[in-house]
Amino acid sequence: MSRIISVKLVGDGWSVQSDAFDSEMMFLSGAKAEAAARRLAGTLAKSGESSEIRIFLRDGALAGQFAVPARRLAMAG
């Protein structure tokens, strides 16, 4: 199952929401919110979880989405 990470306009800022955590992160710019979403997806991938980032426009329309696959952990040996 992939975690969903959404970047949306909320009031005067942009939020990053995910089912991976309870609260949302707020940013003043969409670019900073998207960068945070990508970092979160990278962290999830390193821990073995896949995710899907969904970016929404100011009007609420879906601008794009992309999958970030989980990375397989290398076994020492």
Structural overview:
The protein has 77 residues and is of the alpha+beta class. The chain has a five-stranded mixed beta sheet, with helices on one face. A hairpin with a 5-residue loop joins β4 and β5. The termini are far apart. The model has no long low-confidence stretch (mean pLDDT 92).
> What best-fitting shape do the alpha-carbon axes yield?
elongated
Structural class call reads alpha+beta
Order of helices and strands: EEEHEE
Profile the largest sheet.
5 strands, mixed
Stretches where pLDDT is under 50 for at least 5 consecutive residues are none
Strand content: 35-45%
Q: What's the mean pLDDT score?
A: 92
Q: How large, in whole angstroms, is the Cα Rg?
A: 13 Å
First-residue to last-residue Cα separation: 29 Å
Number of helices: 1
Q: What kind of oligomer do you see?
A: single chain
Beta strand count: 5
Strand ordering within the main sheet: 3-2-1-4-5
Helix % is 10-25%
List its salient traits.
77 residues; alpha+beta; 1 helix; elongated
Topology of helices and strands:
Blueprint: E1 3-10, E2 13-18, E3 25-27, H1 30-46, E4 51-56, E5 62-68
Parallel strand pairs: 1-4
Antiparallel strand pairs: 1-2, 2-3, 4-5
